[in-house]
Amino acid sequence: MNDDNFDITTEPVFWPVFVIGTLASIVASQTIISATFLIVKQCHAFGCFPRVKVIHTSRWICGQIYIPEINWMLMLLCLAVTIGFQDTTIIGHAYGKLLCSSPHLIKFWQNHKIPYEVLFVSFGYKTNFFALISNIAAVYS
């Protein structure tokens, strides 16, 4: 198996780099899970998300929550990405395209959100228009 990330390290530092990379992956995955749970909890508090079962995992630490439905959704999305791309190089290219296109999409959303809300255009029309412009921006970024 040929992996360029591990080929750049020399033999004496391979295992320390491997351990640090594994620990960094664990921290990143826990951050994504915690952030998703907290965003869903906030959306639920504001009435923007359907009712879900929120389990408080600690009596003493506020904010330690677990949402089983969201955990299952994250697992299924991770499996879909892993099975769909099947290669870390392709995932890296997709991530790069996302990083290049996201400023354009955010700028478009900021510039067009207020005028469409003011004009009272139907939700379906706004959604289709946003999807069309987003796809165009993604292709040319």
Tally of separate helices: 5
Helix content: over 70%
Rg from alpha-carbon coordinates:
20 Å
Poorly predicted runs: none
> How many individual β-strands?
2
Separation of the first and last Cα atoms: 33 Å
Q: What structural class do you assign from the helix and strand content?
A: mainly alpha
User: Tell me, what's the shape?
Assistant: flat
- How much of the sequence lies in strands comes to under 5%
Mean pLDDT metric: 79
The secondary-structure element order is HHEEHHH
Side by side, the strands of the main sheet go: 1-2
Largest sheet: 2 strands, antiparallel
Topology:
Layout: H1 4-7, H2 14-45, E1 55-56, E2 65-66, H3 68-85, H4 88-119, H5 123-140
Antiparallel strand pairs: 1-2
